[in-house]
Amino acid sequence: TEMGLTALPVEDVPWSWVAGVVEETGRVLLRAPYLPTVVAAAALHHAGAPVDGLADGTLTAALALDGRLDAVPHALGADLLLVADGDDLVLVESFTASPVEHVDVTRPFASVTHDGGRVIGSASYARDLHWSALAAESVGASQRVLELVVEHLLVRTQFGRPLGSFQALRHKVADLTVLLEAARSTT
Fold first, then answer.
1. Which of these, 185, 121, 129, 187, lies nearest to 13 by C-alpha position?
2. Residue 176: beta bridge partners?
3. C-alpha span between 36 and 54 (Å, rounded)
4. Can you give 22-50 as a three-state secondary structure string?
């Protein structure tokens, strides 16, 4: 590129880099299908069945790694679907998605039907990646909540003083910060 930077092949990108980006998507509650697409790209590459277009964002993916098809996040408009069928990871390239209401309003959900797909390997690696990505996303969302709490404590007053000046609340924020850093390290 103009700056002398080159793109790394998907197999050379450390998962910790991806987790950092996913953490930021959680911090801003990104509604785009970034998380399922990067998990699908990595899982398909690991299974020896890479799909052109996933790594560069040309195509998007949805994940049904719990095997349920009644509420699949980001399935509406996705180009492909990875489904866990027991221990098998199935690549589904033709499916129908219908929007459904869901308690999680941070992402769109759809009910999915399909006529089958191709078994490409074991679902365990894809599940592990998915759980890791969801953990990173949760850390990002938690980070933003902590930032909002601190902002509130600095602005809101009680008894003529900012709430943040009360020692008990400062201790709670410190405890939450330690828990958040532990979650980030675990992720």
1. 129
2. none
3. 10
4. HHHHHHCCCCCCHHHHHHHHHHHHHCCCC
Task: Tell the residue number behind the tokens 């709430």, with chain if given.
Answer: 163
User: Is residue 138 within 8 Å of 182, Cβ to Cβ?
Assistant: no
SS3 6: coil
Alpha carbon 104 to its chain's center? 13
* Count of Cβ atoms closer than 10 Å to residue 51 Cβ: 18
The per-residue pLDDT for range 29-67, each reduced to its tens digit, is: 999 999 999 999 999 999 999 999 998 889 999 999 998
- The dihedral built from the CA positions of residue 87, 93, 98 and 104, taken in this order, carries a sign that is positive
Cα Dmax for the chain? 66
Over residues 119-162, the pLDDT tens digits come to 999 999 999 999 999 999 999 999 999 999 999 999 999 999 99
**DSSP for residue 9:** P
pTM to 2 decimals? Answer: 0.88
Q: Which of 13, 97, 24, 106 is nearest to 55 (CA)?
A: 13
